Amino acid sequence: MGPHPAVAAVRLAVRRALADLEPGSWVLVACSGGADSLALLAATCFEARRPTHTVLGVTVDHGLQPGSAEHADRVVAQMRALGAEARAVTVEVGTAGGPEAAARSARYAALDAAADQHGEQSGADVILLGHTRDDQAETVLLGLARGSGARSLSGMASVTGRYRRPLLDLTRAETRAACEAEGLQVWEDPHNSDTSYTRVRVRREVLPVLERELGPGVADALARTARLLRDDADALDAIADEAHHAARLPEGLDAAVLREHPPAVRRRVLRRTALEAGCPATELFAVHVDAMDALVTDWRGQAGVDLPGARRLSRDGGVLRVAPNPVAG
User: How far is it, in rounded angstroms, from Cα 243 to Cα 33?
Assistant: First the structure.
């Protein structure tokens, strides 16, 4: 008999994600000990045998719960039992952007550092994350609640640099079933039940209401929407690249050139300009971009637009420039 269908599905997803790697590559797997990441690690260890990849499992201890160090030690032992090299990394979580964003930033920084420390030359070739279709649906809903644009609503990409998310087409129920079929002991993160976190409320309260009132398949539909919007956003970003290049001047941006482009392209150029000037992405909202756009399309001598990160967009004749904001500083 072959493996359980859920186990086979996770293994197939991992096999596809690793198909382009050379034999002997280093594969880092982020593993919290939860069902998603544990199923991912087990499948990666299984699939790495034939091309002889080296699997490094990394669990990040955020230090936010009592006994977190002991839990990290248990996960390390579990990863080694599955055949991976394994280590725990302890991080200090800041406060920027709120607790969820701060923990995420600390976690990704730790994974990047761990990946850079391994491998014969340039570190780990890829970093695998256990996000599922359910996570994708939650991400789209959170973006929708913020009034975000197509890029935010397009959710998480399956590949971002060396980060890969093999399980985006699988459900949380499938990863849990895979763990049960393989007899893996799954850790239930207490934070996943803490409704003070926005994502937890979306998971436990919002999505069930949508499924009940609109019918089953809402999560699938949201994930499908993310994939379609990602294609649209990629196309618009490519056009915005060209517009940005055409409008660039030594002293700033040519407002007249920008004005000739559709709003979706213009706003992308303006947002990118603000980010390049040092505005934090987590604090740059649609209201800022709309105000920036008004300096292009409805300029009547306005003094400028205050931006997050102590920056200010101003217009001098036909030239737009972002500079440090002395008032904010």
Answer: 45
Rounded average pLDDT over 36-45: 98
The structure's pTM equals 0.83
Span 148-200, pLDDT tens digits: 677 778 889 999 999 999 999 999 999 999 999 999 999 888 777 788 888 89
- Under DSSP, is residue 322 helix (H, G, I), strand (E, B) or coil? strand
Residue type, 268: R
Write out pLDDT tens, residues 100-142: 778 888 899 999 999 888 655 556 789 999 999 999 999 999 8
Cβ neighbours of residue 7 closer than 8 Å, sequence gap 6 or more: 39, 43, 178, 181, 182
Residue among 184, 211, 189, 187 nearest 200 (CA): 189
Complete domains list, the chain, with CATH: 5-214 (3.40.50.620), 250-324 (3.30.465)
Closest CA to 39 of 184, 158, 169: 184
Secondary structure, 3-state, 83-136:
CCEEEEEECCCCCCCCHHHHHHHHHHHHHHHHHHCCCCCCCCCEEECCCCHHHH
- Helix, strand, coil percentages for the chain (3-state, nearest 5): 50, 15, 35
